[in-house]
């Protein structure tokens, strides 16, 4: 339910009791170099160590149905697990104060696609947008909805869209992600006031958010309804993704599979490329193609 580095809050399935557990020795997961061997949402086997102290020992991590992962910011060649065994991934997006880049949105969607996790975009902070920004947001929503991604509009201060978010979460395990300052904690508080999560104002310096969630944590919102609140993400480097596979995780490019002249086409400068033709014709958005090129080139996502 919660990871604080070396200790984990583990919920007993039988009675719902929370135990403070630590790992038995060092866990090495085959073919997976990660900074954190256990993620919130993992199913584990544990033994009670001390009932009086409410502590336990994690003995095993059960096979995962899926997981969200990103490149570690601090440890080269390693990845960081964001959450495991989720039904959907929700990205909270703001177009102003702080601005979520289109490159970041696309990287999140590609990460979810690569592990077959349905993704939803929640456009928050409507009250801060000008008419021109609202029009731009509508264009973005129409673009992503045309690709099969559900888009919601919310404003925590006025409760706009909160009923839709509650319905979206019902009966599912969801992970909530986004930059620091986009309003994840405020949204959760508005949906479930009893949680009373800590929030902070966005710093006016460079319009960057301030980290308030320092550890990933899963909250039980209702029967069979769980929400993982993850720390604000500044960068989302792709992990476990070969450049030749990235186009498979863009639905509009996936639709053109096997239509390029060369079967191993990377859609960069090869002749007879169906994807580049679609970009020129306007059936693939230039912003999406730019995101694709930055991912293949291993560039950052601050665009």
Tell me what you see in this structure.
The chain is α/β, with parallel strands linked by helices. The protein contains 7 helices and 13 strands. The protein has 3 domains: 2-61, OB fold (Dihydrolipoamide Acetyltransferase, E2P) (Beta Barrel), CATH 2.40.50; 67-229, 3-Layer(aba) Sandwich (Rossmann fold); 243-296, Ribonucleotide Reductase Protein R1, domain 1. It has helices at residues 102-114, 131-146, 162-169, 184-191, 251-254, 274-281, 286-296; strands at residues 2-3, 8-11, 18-23, 44-50, 55-61, 67-71, 79-84, 88-93, 119-123, 150-153, 173-177, 217-222, 225-229. It has a 6-stranded mixed β-sheet, with helices on both faces. Strands 1-2-3-5-4 form a 5-stranded mixed β-sheet, with no helix packed on it. Strands 6-7 form a two-stranded antiparallel ribbon. The model is unreliable at 200-213 (pLDDT under 50). It is found in: Cytoplasm. Pfam families: RsgA_GTPase (PF03193), RsgA_N (PF16745). GO terms for molecular function: GTP binding; GTPase activity; metal ion binding; rRNA binding.
């Amino acid at each position: 339910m919660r990871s604080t580095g070396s200790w984990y809050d583990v919920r007993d399935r039988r009675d719902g009791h929370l135990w403070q557990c630590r790992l038995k020795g060092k866990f090495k997961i085959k073919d997976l170099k990660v900074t954190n061997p256990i993620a919130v949402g993992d199913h584990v086997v544990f033994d009670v160590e001390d009932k009086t102290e409410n502590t336990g020992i994690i003995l095993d991590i059960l096979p995962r149905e899926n997981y969200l992962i990103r490149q570690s910011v601090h440890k080269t060649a390693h990845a960081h697990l964001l959450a495991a065994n989720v039904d959907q991934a929700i990205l909270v997006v703001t177009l102003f104060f702080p601005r979520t880049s289109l490159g970041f949105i696309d990287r999140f969607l590609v990460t979810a696609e690569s592990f077959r996790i349905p993704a939803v975009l929640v456009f928050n902070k409507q009250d801060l947008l000008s008419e021109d920004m609202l029009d731009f947001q509508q264009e973005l929503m129409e673009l992503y909805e045309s690709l099969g991604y559900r888009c919601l509009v919310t404003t925590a201060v006025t409760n706009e869209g909160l009923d839709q978010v509650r319905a979206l979460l019902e009966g599912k395990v969801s992970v909530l992600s986004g930059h620091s300052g986009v309003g994840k904690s405020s949204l959760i508080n508005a949906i479930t006031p009893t949680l009373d999560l800590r929030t902070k104002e966005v710093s006016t310096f460079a319009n960057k958010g301030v980290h308030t969630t320092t550890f990933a944590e899963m909250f039980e919102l209702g029967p069979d309804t769980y929400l993982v609140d993850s720390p604000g993400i500044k960068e989302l480097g792709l992990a476990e993704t070969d450049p030749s596979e990235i186009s498979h995780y863009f639905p509009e490019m996936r639709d053109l599979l096997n239509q390029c002249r060369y079967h191993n086409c990377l859609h960069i400068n090869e002749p007879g490329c169906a994807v580049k033709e679609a970009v020129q014709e306007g059936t693939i958005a230039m912003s999406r193609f730019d995101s694709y090129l930055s991912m293949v080139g291993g560039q950052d996502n601050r665009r």
